[in-house]
Structures are given as structure tokens and as C-alpha cells.
Amino acid sequence: MTHIEINPKILCGKPVIKGTRIPVYLILELLAAGYDFERIMEAYPDLKREDIEAAIEYASGVVKGEEVIEVEA
Fold first, then answer.
1. pTM assigned to the model
2. CB of 40 within 8 A of CB of 27?
3. Domain boundaries, the chain
């Protein structure tokens, strides 16, 4: 993904929007709290619509790729 960067030297390797220190999880939290794209971009002027869309796409891919393993207790 061209908009997402994972670098151990930036926020301990959390996925961020490339060229910023804005983590993907923050964008997702704002969306979950009811912020729309415009409000997020007002709060974080460095973000573009494509960055927010990339954060959603990245998170979707992570969840889709999760493997569930049953563990007996």
C-alpha cells in the first residue's frame, strides 16, 4: 500500500499514514466515533481522502487475514 508505512522507528512500528505520524488506529477510532472524512481532514490537515480510504482498506485486509485457532482450555 502506497499510503501506509510500517517502520519500527515511527510509533514503535504501528502502521501510520506515510509521511506522517498519524496511526491507522486513530483514523479508525475517529470514524467509529462518528467523524466523517471531512471532519477528520479538518482535524488533521496533512490527511487526504485517499489516506483515510487506505487506512480502512489496510484494516480490512488485516482483519480478513486473521487466522482463528481454537485452543482447548
1. 0.87
2. yes
3. 4-61
